[in-house]
């Protein structure tokens, strides 16, 4: 259970630059096993919200609680997947996947075995000895996902992980992610600026306002899991997407 | 054989032919023919004096370059890691980079006299700044995203250093060592020509005073050849160590 209560966050001003408020009284609860999508215009503070959850930043005011305990820093209960994959370019795929385990001094045999199992799970069985640069964008992102899953976190934090992929690759990764979520029932907080992606993946969708971000609305996604066939033409899918579009369109432009 | 190799050999042959033609028609003491130079080179390689001169030069090269690497790399990495420290020191490193080192040689003589240590010091002064500056830059520009990733996985400061910062700085360190080696060769010869007539430089001065231009050219050819071979060795080592940088991609 994740609770974000009354969170404010502002970037500290430096010199003659004024402090910039990024989050303004954000309240969100995420149940165990829930897949929550955070949707908002670009630059609104979605990533900042995720960094608070990851323990990479501390709220200026308010609380971030996980199972009632305040977040004070990064922890093994949370695995993060990054927008630009953030793989170590000098290490092969297997070493990258085992990175989090190596930091915790898990013995080599054990961490490599676990890493191989996760490469199987994300569909990269034959790629253990490749280097990140040799992989396509979609494959790099799969490695990033495997690395986050390798530490067996209860919570997966995903920061627009599929944002830079082409439509077809993106769809394939979305489907694999949903399959994995269904099998393991991890809590997922998934940040995206794509309405389609949010409706396709989420149990619930939190819509943020332009910066400073507030929770503008919360939508339940009335679609079963696994998603029914012919999803794209289901009225519930189409209507929710349209509603979200209208809400996003009517938002005032974010201050640059 | 690849086409580029053939072209390269062709250009070299053409230049040699031009050299030979000019030398034959000019008939001057200052420009020996290719064939004279070659036979001088053969004589040189047979003489014990040449090999002992080579060894004397390389003592200074080794001493200067190894100490420049041993001091320059850690120092550069430290400056890069603590930017506030780097901010104070960087201008001085950059000054060292552009100071005409030959001009400081009287100072070297005052400090170390006319000795192997003095020649080593000249080599050091040639190689050190570029090694330290590149190591500093490599460390300073560590990818912020990778550092944040490591932090999110709970890396301790020591783990950040060993598993992210140092591997990220490694390519710059190697590039610095390669540049440093090239500068060390200049330092070696300059030290012997300006500081004291020893080793290869001493040999050069002796042949010059004998008006033996062919031998002068032969000595220069040996130094050039050796530095080219050594640079190639370092480049291959770099390729081996940093193969991840340019492997073919798929997908």
Q: Percent helix among the residues of chain B?
A: over 70%
**Oligomerization category of the chains in this entry:** heterodimer
Total E-strand runs of chain A:
10
Count of strand segments of chain B: 0
Q: What's the story with the biggest beta sheet of chain A?
A: 6 strands, mixed
Radius of gyration of chain A: 18 Å
Low-confidence stretches of chain A: none
Biggest interface? A-B, 30 and 26 residues
The string of secondary-structure elements of chain B, in order, is HHHHHHHHHH
Separation of termini of chain B?
A: 30 Å
Look at the helices and sheets of chain A and give the structural class. Answer: alpha/beta
Overall pLDDT level of chain A: 91
Percentage beta strand of chain B: under 5%
What is the makeup of the main sheet of chain B? none
Order of neighbouring strands in the sheet with most strands of chain A:
6-7-8-3-9-10
Helix tally of chain B?
Answer: 10
- Describe the global form of chain A: globular
How would you portray this structure in words?
The complex is a heterodimer of chains A (256) and B (251). Chain A is built from 8 helices and 10 strands. The longest helix of chain A has 18 residues, at 167-184. Chain A has 256 residues and is an alpha/beta fold. Chain A is globular and about 50 Å long. In chain A, the strands form 2 sheets. Chain A has a 6-stranded mixed beta sheet, sandwiched between helices. A 4-stranded antiparallel beta sheet of chain A has the order 2-1-4-5, covered by helices on one side. In chain A, helix 4 (108-121) packs across helix 5 and helix 7 packs across helix 8. Chain A has helices at residues 46-54, 93-97, 99-103, 108-121, 137-150, 167-184, 195-201, 235-250, and strands spanning 2-11, 20-30, 35-39, 61-66, 69-70, 78-81, 155-159, 187-192, 204-208, 215-220. Chain B has 10 helices and no strands. Chain B has helices spanning 3-26, 34-46, 48-81, 83-98, 105-112, 116-140, 144-152, 157-195, 199-209, 213-241. In chain B, helix 5 (105-112) packs across helix 6 (116-140) and helix 6 (116-140) packs antiparallel against helix 8. Chain B is globular. The two termini of chain B are 30 Å apart. The A-B interface holds A 54-56, 73-76, 78, 80, 82, 84, 86, 88-91, 99-100, 102-104, 131, 133-139, 151 and B 145-146, 148-156, 159, 163-164, 167-168, 170, 242, 244-251.
